[in-house]
TrEMBL record, chains A, B:
It comes from Vitreoscilla filiformis. InterPro entries: FAD-bd_oxidored_4_C (IPR004113), FAD-bd_PCMH (IPR016166), FAD-bd_PCMH-like_sf (IPR036318), FAD-bd_PCMH_sub2 (IPR016169), FAD-linked_Oxase-like_C (IPR016164), Oxid_FAD_bind_N (IPR006094), Vanillyl_alc_oxidase_C-sub2 (IPR016171). GO terms for molecular function: D-lactate dehydrogenase (cytochrome) activity; D-lactate dehydrogenase (NAD+) activity; FAD binding. Residues 51-228 form the FAD-binding PCMH-type domain. This is D-lactate dehydrogenase (cytochrome). It is an enzyme of class 1 (oxidoreductase). Belongs to the FAD-binding oxidoreductase/transferase type 4 family.
Length: 475, 475
């Protein structure tokens, strides 16, 4: 099947927001309804490369009841509502392509209920992941999902986020137990329970996780937590080329080593973090790894991994033994994206997010690298390679459309190969505005038709974050 | 809210099966379409206590294309289709409450593609779990999900099954990567990919897992496999009472010990397996445990668990060190249900399946035990207690309706408490015919309305296993 052409600029079709609606909302929310340009503009931007007019108004909601009220009112006038968390989307999830209301949930940032003995926690959607970990660490627990940004738990749930720990602890898919959701008509429903497993009817929790705000507004999330490991060790290991680093990773996974983090940085990414974080790392492809467990288990894991790295030409491990040294390394990893942007002033990044079966990873990464090098655009590669997920980011000058086109063509090649390898166009960033054509290629017309049928059933007037994942179904 | 009354006998509303439909199917399937009474009768029974007339015909399908053909034809006449795997449902999933066609998928029993290096396998739905493990073990891999019966992978997917290993390896929810599904109109769609994670649109895979045949007929399943552990140790430990065994389990989970299996048998269950399997076990409450990992890790786990058991009055571990001894113990555990049935000739079992947050498990189990004892019905308790999931089975004489009523009242009490504890009415058996009232209580009217809306959107003529999970929506 031919690759569906990708539209690089979203379709913008604003719908009117009646003054009566704003009046009703203002009556309930007072100054927490804003139509000030600066506020709207702030809520109309994310980390994606799209230019879209801002939403017509922003509501700073403070409770599930307020969200339900706002959605019920918007539903009366068929006006779009777009949930807003920390604004860190890379795929345009929060852009108001059909106008409407931005529901800012950042003030709903309370950790509602920690059940330490069950290792569960219930939070509001505006809680940030750093805040959550700060709150639960005194109970000896942590929440492992860590996208690079300090994202909100609501946004992470809505995009099925993952990050560096997913290789061991899973993604939001595995770590969300239950949700409170405001439906398209403004009703409040609850999905899931605090039990670890259930066979009670359709898995509405998993349907909402990753639905990008298009099926409901998530207002409470119950999460699994994990015990803080007794022992933690982090290490870096340099390789002659990206292929050797990736082949080491493949061997680690195939051996069943329960590695907690296994991150690739290519030499460009290492150079960027060196510049930004003054780390003085050797500027060659590198694995950044972390091991969790009892002291004996960590010891065993590291011995196995060192032997595997050695077989693939890896240099001796450098250990980050203190918590401070580990934090410094991981901060650098999480800053890699922003650090790399600084190497080309004024640039933006077009970032791929494919995830492939682990046995195909070396081929996927090295072909992407070769093509980027041949194309002559600056790029860098980082990857959650233990999952088969990597990002190659092309740095483009937004004033030069030909760079944008070139980056998009390279991205299409990466995606096309991932799908041919029985992988996915997006491991963790979501579809948003950018990957709608890729979704059609990956899931097929029948799969997307089923998604559209669900959307139509749960949101018949298409008011919940319209224009994302797919365009409005032709009825 | 008051508990919704439970209907103990399903609503039976047969729909006509036109002769033209049978003629079209016979033309394509030949002798693999059967209307013989014995065949229909065999496909109209499972392990549930319901008496329902058998389906009107049975189709032995041999390919996705045949299933698609059969469903498309059934759709023309709006005739129900009910997927049939191994017939081991406990909740009436395969009963033809509205008549129609039983699609027997047991001949679709080929392991299609093993990707050992990715630890994935693609199978047809009729593959049995024992067969799958036999096939993949030479590659050093295993599939951990093990409901007591030798169920089919298709049926296990459709009911979101789990079993004894779920505490470490998760359930079907975590271990299904991708599906091929025949929709209500007879189209073939594909969900998911072989990548370990994805954020590509709605999670149709998870929506189909646990949908009990009501949203599509599953014709291929791609599963995660796991490396056979380097070292395995199994042990039993006896306790004075059920509470002590459960409290030991709670401590094991809260410590974060990666125990692979942690099963409770009460003294009645031990007595039954002793009678049946001649094991000579001490007839008191018992934990049956298994540890997987490297030798050092297994050593460490067992030391921790022995210390915890000792604190709760557990007697010294008895080890099953040889594979034969382990197999014998686990076979006995898997036979517990049938062994117990044999202690009261001619009886049937009414089985609960609640799952609660682990901190509430001791209370949930001991209250259930006290009530059963006070009621005077024979019962036994087994439990995947590491997950917070336990089964109390009441042995009733089907000829005495008052025993049935008493068992159902006890069951209602167990479920009511589980839901109050933020748990679920079914950890692994599914809703089927039996727990529709409980689902309403657990998920709420809004949650069930959302499930019905999805059903209506994907199966507007209600031909896919109608009458299961919920009655047909009022339109």
């Amino acid at each position: 099947m031919a690759m569906t052409p990708v539209s690089h600029q979203p379709l913008i079709t604003p719908r009117p927001v009646p003054a009566e609606l704003l009046a009703v909302l203002a009556e309930r929310l007072g100054a927490r309804l804003s139509t000030a340009w600066a506020v709207r503009e702030h809520h109309g931007r994310d980390e994606s490369p799209f230019d879209v007019p801002p939403p017509d108004a922003v509501l700073f909601c403070e409770s599930t009841e307020e969200v339900a009220f706002a959605v019920a009112q918007a539903a009366r006038w068929k006006v779009p509502v777009i949930p807003y968390g920390a604004g860190s989307s890379l795929e345009g999830h929060l852009l108001a392509v059909q106008g409407g209301l931005s529901l800012d949930l950042s003030r709903m940032n309370t950790v509602l209920q920690l059940n330490a003995e069950d290792q569960t926690v219930r939070v509001q959607p505006g809680v940030l992941r750093s805040q959550l970990n700060q709150t639960v660490k005194d109970a000896g627990l942590f929440f492992p999902i860590d996208p690079g940004a300090d994202a909100s738990i609501g946004g992470m749930t809505a995009t099925r986020a993952s990050g560096t720990n997913a290789v061991r602890y899973g993604t939001m898919r595995e770590n969300v137990l239950a949700l409170t959701v405001v439906t398209a008509s403004g009703e409040v429903i609850h999905t899931g329970t605090r039990a670890r497993k259930s066979s009670a009817g359709y898995d509405l929790t998993r349907l909402m996780v990753g639905s990008e705000g298009t099926l409901g507004v998530i207002t409470e999330i119950t999460l699994k937590l994990h015990p803080l490991p007794e022992s933690v060790a982090a290490a870096i290991c340099s390789f002659d080329d990206v292929a050797s680093a990736v082949n080491t990773t493949i061997a680690i996974i195939q051996m069943g080593v329960p590695i907690a983090r296994c991150e690739l940085l290519d030499s460009n990414a290492v150079r960027a973090v060196n510049l930004n974080d003054k780390l003085g790392l050797k500027e060659s492809p590198m694995l950044l790894m972390e091991f969790h467990g009892s002291p004996a288990s960590v010891q065993e894991q590291t011995e196995t991994v060192q032997a595997l790295a050695h077989e693939h030409g890896g240099q001796a491990f450098e250990w980050a033994t203190t918590p401070e040294a580990r934090t410094r390394l991981w901060r650098a990893r999480h800053h890699a994206y922003l650090s790399a942007l600084q190497t080309k002033p004024g640039c933006r990044a077009v970032t791929t997010d494919t995830c492939v079966p682990i046995s195909r990873l070396a081929e996927a990464v090295t072909v992407a690298e070769d093509e980027a090098r041949a194309a002559g655009l600056p790029y860098f590669i980082v990857g959650h390679v233990g999952d088969g997920n990597f990002h190659i980011a092309y740095l483009i000058d937004p004033a030069r459309p030909e760079e944008r086109e070139l980056a998009e063509r390279l991205n299409e090649g990466v995606v096309r190969r991932a799908i041919a390898m029985q992988g996915t166009c997006t491991g963790e960033h979501g579809i948003g505005l950018h990957k709608q054509g890729f979704l059609l290629e990956e899931a097929g017309a029948g799969g997307v038709a089923m998604m559209r049928a669900i959307k139509q059933a749960l949101d018949p007037d298409n008011i919940l974050n319209p224009g994302k994942i797919f365009q409005r179904p032709a009825v």
